[in-house]
Amino acid sequence: MIILCRIFYVKKERGDYLLIHKILNNNVVVILGKNDEEQIVMGKGIAYKKKIGDYIDDNIIDKVFTLTDKNSSNKFTDILKELSLEYIEIADEIIKYATEKLDKKLNENVIIPLSDHIQTAVERHLDGINMKNFLLWDIKRFYREEFNIGLEALKIIERKLNVSLPEDEAGFIAIHIVNSLTNECSENIYDITKIMQEVVNIVKYCLKTGIDEESGYYYRFVTHIKYFAQRLISGKTYEDENDDNLLEIIKVKYAEAYKCVERISEFINKKYKYVILNEEKVYLTIHIAKIMSKQAN
Fold first, then answer.
1. Which of 24, 57, 205, 237 has an alpha carbon within 20 to 30 A of 162's alpha carbon?
2. How many angstroms separate the CA atoms of 113 and 29, rounded?
């Protein structure tokens, strides 16, 4: 899986002429910007009949990326050597659609890993190989808006390339969108989703019944669990104010919900070596108690 951090997309002012520093392919070249930082410049046929040291007209440039993380530079340029411009254009259309639907600004660095994923997925599919997304069901549950964007992305890909990818790919694309919203690396998103699944399963076991996943209580609970899982992955915890009195009140008032939290705490400690502090237990207990109350009505 390709992970790129700290890549920023900028628009160039028109009318400049830029000196080619490297040629990656016919549509992608590297120039040197201010302070001699490498900038990736893209445009259809931008390097046609060009060589290092030649100038290019800024009017034919579509996109410019500035690499601020030198450790990512080689990986980034290696990807672009193999990346077709049409996949970058498809990813760009998906990102614009996601931005409009979510009404949130995505981290622009998602365009390259998303383009790379789509190209790889299409090439695999045409070779008769489709990857199973084992977290598809949970992605649908926990990231519904992003998954719907993934479904729309499949329509865009089919319209542009006449290739119909399986629903599993909508899940993979959704993870890229989630990644761009949370600034988490993509493999962390998979871990976070897995933890969310485990916690929800424990709650279901405690309830001994299903959960109304359409309820507002469930939505707020899942949102809390998502941030809890992010803290777990990063090793962060709530600041524990040692409000034992509040916890004691909660334990009595919501006894069944608190028992469930204790199960969660034991599981998380055993599997992830992560200690859930009292303040976190208070929040979890309240969320679970509301779900239990909803289920009882």
1. 24
2. 18
